Amino acid sequence: MYTIIGIIVVFGGIISGYLMEHGNLHVLWQPAELVIIGGAAIGSFLIASPPKVVGLVLKSLRLVFGGGGPGKTDYLELLALLNTIFSKIRKEGLISIESDIEDPKKSPLFTKYKSVVSNHHALNFICDNLKVMITTNMPPYELDNLMEIDIDSNHAEELSASSSLNKVGDSLPGLGIVAAVLGVVITMGKIDSPPAVLGHSIGSALVGTFIGILMCYGFVGPMATKIEATAEDASIYPKVIKTALVAFVGGAAPQIAVESGRRAIPGSVRPSFAELETSLRKK
After folding, report:
1. Which of 16, 17, 165, 216 could staple 224 via S-S, CB 3.0–4.6 A?
2. What is d(CA 277, CA 273) in angstroms, rounded to the nearest whole number?
3. What's CA 275's distance to the chain center, in Å?
4. Exposed, middle or buried by CB within 10 Å (0-12, 13-18, 19+), for 7?
5. DSSP code for 272
6. Which pTM was predicted?
7. What pLDDT shows up at residue 283?
8. CA pseudo-torsion sign 163, 236, 246, 118
9. pLDDT per residue over 148-170, tens digit each?
């Protein structure tokens, strides 16, 4: 929602100011300049990016218009699931959850927590580390290191999308100059034309520079920043899981392990102790 409002404000501010100076909007409409800049930007992006990164960027573009990272409700569901898992392990032993983590999407233990089940990476992260707990006697600090490696690897991959898009944005002013130079070249072919014709042609060429700078600082750059911020928010989710699991493996009671996970949540979306307690009672 805020992204759409931002786009409207950018266009509104620029067009309003231009019209206040009695500018002609028709002059700004230069499809050829858009084709040159857009085509060159897409082409350079495909040259610079491996297929995996191209897919990540296309997938991440939906985040630009999304609502950001996990919210308080998502974290409450996650903590409730972890509490259920830890309580079952404490009462029935580690082996009791083996069938649940083999096929979590069909497990009655997991399916009550839809936001967690729909998060593919988080679900795999939970199940993979529970399998490690079942099959090995790994000390808490080693499990902590193992999970940290997993989190860092996934986070670096998610950030590659914003980094690649940011580089495309940085190239747009230069590509705008390319379009402007081509416009000047065309103008030179009309050097014997009347001043009004030459002025219109040069103005059209300069629109290329305007479009390149506007796309860089008004749209593509902010979109890359939004994708990066969303990836940073999403990286907190597995850290909450890691904190709770390490505490539980270290011998903490289920409630204390879940409380450790709650403390890893940023304050803006962290459920209060009373909210968590209420949620656990309902579940």
Report:
1. 165
2. 6
3. 28
4. middle
5. P
6. 0.83
7. 66
8. negative
9. 999 999 898 889 999 999 999 99
